[in-house]
Each structure stands twice: as structure tokens, then as C-alpha cells.
Amino acid sequence: MGTQQTHTRRNVLKTGIAAAAAVFPSIEALGEPKQPGETRIIYFGGDYVHNGVAQERYIRRTFAAMKCRMFFVQASRFLTPDVFAKADLIMMTRIGTHDPQGFCPDGLVEQRPEPDMFMNPEMENAIDRNVRVRGMGFIAFHCTLRNPDKKKLMALLGCESRKGSSLQDIELFDFNPNHPITQGFSDFELEYEENQQTVIENNEVELLFKCKGAKDGLVNTAGWCISRGNGRVVALLPGHSSGTWSHPQFSELYWRAAHWALKREIPPLER
């Protein structure tokens, strides 16, 4: 009989990362030192009800003209403090206590491993520290605003997590004409979205726009931003459906939000 081995969680993660790196060189690249002048953007999203494939497709299309190095992360294990320390901007669309499914580098999976914990205290502290101290930018989309157990994250965003809503068309309106993210924007509608209720708890928050649900008629704050220490944070409520990510005006919103969070001038979005 073979010798039975007890694997600690840390050893399993190390083994998984090493195996994945052997198959996907980009995993090793995520830990590489930044090159002079390199802008590194990391997007962490996708779950059972939010289409990660569509998110990546349309975000890549939107940022195609930007000279940056962009990584799309599929498992929490890869978002280590060292990775955050090298990132210029983190964008996130995630909710819950665990990743939606266990990560496996194989192209054909018969039995999927247990999923990683989503945003353990180490990850939450690393985001907060890198924003406030180092000046990393952070954009929280959609369901990221509904993580009530992540106290430090919600405090960073300056809001209180509230319940979601039924899916419906929403109208985005009352755009702040004085902020570079929303300057010149006109009202527009998004289909198949949630009209989440969010309560702003920090008076330093600058409101960007509101939304109104076609079904429930409720008006909610749907976009805001705030400076946190040396960093900048943007919160954007939409992001449920594929149509939202491909919508030209919403694409323009997160294009502008990214540049503002990076403390850069905002060039026109090339389509």
C-alpha cells in the first residue's frame, strides 16, 4: 500500500499554482516584477449568474487601445499580497464566501476540486492597504457592492451593503456634470439589470449618477467615487448582464473610471 500523505491547504495551493504555471505562462507573469512604465490591471469577476466570458471579452475590447498589461483572474488563490503590490488597478465583480467553482488548469475536468475562499482577511487587508498606502486604484462593479461580511471592503467603498432587486430595465440619469468620469454624459437605459439599494455612509463620497428601475420605480445611487489615502476608488452598480458590459455608454463609463482611478488624463474611447 502507498504511504498516505496529509496535505495542508497551503501545500495544496502551492501545488495547484505550480501545476497551473506549467500550463499557463501568464500565471508566472502575474508574479513578475513590473517593467519600467508598465501599467498592470487585474480583473476578477465571473460566477454562476454573471457571465465572466462576456465580461472579459468586452473589457478587453474596451481597453484594447490602452497601453497596459491586463490579467483576468479566475481563482482567489492567485490574488496574493505580492500580486496586489504590483497592480496599478484592480477591477472586481464578485460576491459571496467562495469562488463559484474550484480552479483546475486542465482543459478536460472530470472531478473539479473544492473552490477557494473568496476574499479571505489577507486579501481584504491587501486591497485596503494597497489603495490607501501605495495608491492603487480600485473599481467595484455590481455584486461587489453586496458583501456585508467584508467590513473593510465596504468601508473602503464608503457604503452599506443592501439587498438586490428583481431583474428589470434601469435608467441611468442625473450624471454629475462636474466630474471627469461623467462629464458630458446623457441619460441611457440598460436591459436585464438589478436596481440594487445602496446606502452611502461616508460624506466624502462624490456621487456620479443615479438609476431608476422600470419595474419597481425606485431611485438609487448607482455610481460614486472617493479618494482613500493615496488611492482612488470607484463604485459602479451595473454589471449583471452581458448587454451591460457591451453597451457603448457603460463601456465609456468604466473606461473613464479606470483612468480616473489611475490618476491619468482621460482620452476619448476609440470604438
Question: Can you tell me about this structure?
Answer:
A hairpin with a 2-residue loop joins strand 10 (219-228) and strand 11 (231-236). It is built from eight helices and eleven strands. The longest helix has 15 residues, at 9-23. The model is unreliable at 1-9 (pLDDT under 50). By secondary structure, the chain is of the alpha/beta class. The chain has a domain at 30-104 and 114-161 and 199-209 and 219-261: Class I glutamine amidotransferase (GATase) domain (Rossmann fold). A nine-stranded mixed sheet has the order 2-1-3-4-11-10-9-6-7. Strands 5-8 form a two-stranded antiparallel sheet. The protein starts with 8 loop residues before the first helix and ends in a 10-residue tail after the last helix.
Based on the model shown, name its key terms.
271 residues, alpha/beta, Rossmann fold, nine-stranded mixed beta sheet, two-stranded antiparallel ribbon, 23% strand
Overall shape: it is globular
Estimate what percentage of residues fall within beta strands: 15-25%
Class derived from helix and strand content: alpha/beta
Question: Can you give the helix content as a percent range?
Answer: 25-40%
Q: What is the distance, rounded to the nearest whole angstrom, between the alpha carbons of the first and last residues?
A: 62 Å
Q: Taking all residues together, what is the mean pLDDT?
A: 90
Please give the count of helices.
8
From the 3D structure, determine the CATH topology of one domain: Rossmann fold
Topology of helices and strands:
Elements: H1 9-23, H2 25-30, E1 40-44, H3 52-62, E2 69-73, H4 81-86, E3 89-92, H5 121-134, E4 137-141, H6 151-157, E5 159-160, E6 167-173, E7 188-194, E8 199-200, E9 206-213, E10 219-228, E11 231-236, H7 242-246, H8 248-261
Parallel strand pairs: 1-2, 1-3, 3-4, 4-11
Antiparallel strand pairs: 5-8, 6-7, 6-9, 9-10, 10-11
